[in-house]
Each structure stands twice: as structure tokens, then as C-alpha cells.
Give the backbone structure.
Amino acid sequence: MTTHTTPTAPPGHRRKPVKVKAGKAKAGKAKATGNRRTPGSYAVLAAVAVFVLAFLAPFVVILLNSFKSSADFRTNGSLSLPAQWNWSIIAEVWDRVGFTQKLLNSIQISLGVVLIAVLLALFNAYAIGIGRIRWRTPFLIFFLGVNVLPQEGLVYPIYYLFKEMGLYDGKLGYTILVGITYSAFGTYLLSSVFSSFPRELIEAASMDGAGRWTILWRIVLPMSWPTLSVMCVFFFVWSWNEFLYPLVLLISNDNQTVPLGLSVMQGQYTSDPTAMSAAALLGIVPMVVFFLIFQRSLTRGMTAGAVK
């Protein structure tokens, strides 16, 4: 029986140092070099800065002119700082427009529109995208056609319809109308999302005895919440900024929304730029507050599905 022994180095023998190639050092150096900004990146940053300044410029002008007196505006122009910050203009415009009532009307109508539009879109998209009903493509074409129809072509038939049904000059009828209109866009959007929904989850839930309602509320809705949150934000903003429909359908002062209330600041022969700026500022502030509250949900919804 033979045994194998491992040769050992003689006493006093020193191993030669192993040379390590400088690949890692070069890679680190290249990585550090890649983090340096190039002329192209500076050009992109400059373009973004110009775009941001151009976007913010009108808001800055509105903010400056909202606290000027009429004499200060005529003397120094619209681009100068106020000689004296006149806060009473905001209070005068608030009382003149009746902003409290119109603010409450806009909030009520916008929240009602969001509720109606999202629920209808969710049910329709669940039937079309996951239920795979017959005539799926014609239904999607119909909902897409509703989105492209101009309001000018619909407002007068809707006006006469509301007159006949007794819904004219009522917040409830107007809220239902706008909610149904927006649900067409929501249905088209959610149907494309639900068409790629994992069928394995639905089949597994069905095998466990879950019904259609359980699948909708326990599986589909939680997984679709990022998309639904974006829809809620968009529908709220769109409803808040609506002008033509409320102009025709909401004529009484107690039912008018914020955009309609601000329109009374412009007369046919007279106008007060400072009062109009203050009115525009009052209309902007609620939307800014709304975005500050829900900007995280909007960001998550916009980036949902980008990273799995």
C-alpha cells in the first residue's frame, strides 16, 4: 500500500509575492470617471432648468400681483415686487366671489365624481379585462370613442336632457354626468391593466372557493390600488378644472364651482388685474395643497410596474 505525501517547503524558504493585476483598480477608476458630468448632461440640466423656470413664471407673476394695490400695479407694472404687501385684496376677493360656498361645492362635486368614476371603471374593467366578456373589442372602442368626443358637441343635448329630467341646475345630476363621462377613460385604462393580470392568482382563488366579488375586493383591488390612486388624482383635478359643463348646467350662485366663481372677476368693459390675480391664487392654492398631500401616492402609482 503506497502513501502520498505533500511536499513541504524547506525551512527558511519564502514564497514569492503574488502579483495582482490592476484590473479592479482600473475598473474603479473607470467607474469614477463615468460619474463625471459630460457636456451633454450639463445641456440636459440647463434645458430642464429653463423648462422649470418657464413653467413657474406665471405662478410667480400671479403671486406678486395678488398683493399689490391697483395704483402700485399701474405705476410699477406686473413684474415688480409689491411696494407694500396688501393682504386685504385676498379678503375682498374672497367675500366678493363667495369663495367659501364655491370651495365647498367644488370639493363635494370632485369627490363625488371620483367615487362614481372609479367604481364604474373598476366594475367595467373587471368584466372586460378579467371576465373576458363577449364583444370585448367593440366595448373598448366604444369607451375610447366617448373619450374623444368634444364637450361642445355634447353640452346642448345634455342641457335639454337635464331640463326634461329635472336635473338642471343641480349638483347631483352634474356629478353623475361627469362621473359617468370620466369612467369611460378609467374603463379603457383599467381594462388594459387587468388584461395582463396574473391568471394563476384568480384560478387559485377560484379553486379555494372564492367567488367573483371576493376575487375583486380581496385580490384584484389591492393589487390595482397604485393605478386606481393615479386615476383618483387625475379625476379630482379634471373635475375641479371643469368649466364648460358647470357654466351651462350650474347657473345659480349657490351651486357654482370655483372656476365659475373666479370668472366673475372679469367684466366686459372693466377689469382689475390685482383682483384677478388674487382670484387666480385662490383657485391655485387648493390644488397645490391637494398635490402636496397625495404626491406620494401619485409617484408610487406612476412608477408601479416599472420594477418587479
About this structure: The radius of gyration is 31 Å. Residues 1-6, 29-33 have pLDDT under 50 and may be disordered. DSSP finds 14 helices and no strands in the chain. The CA atoms of residues 192 and 292 lie 29 Å apart.
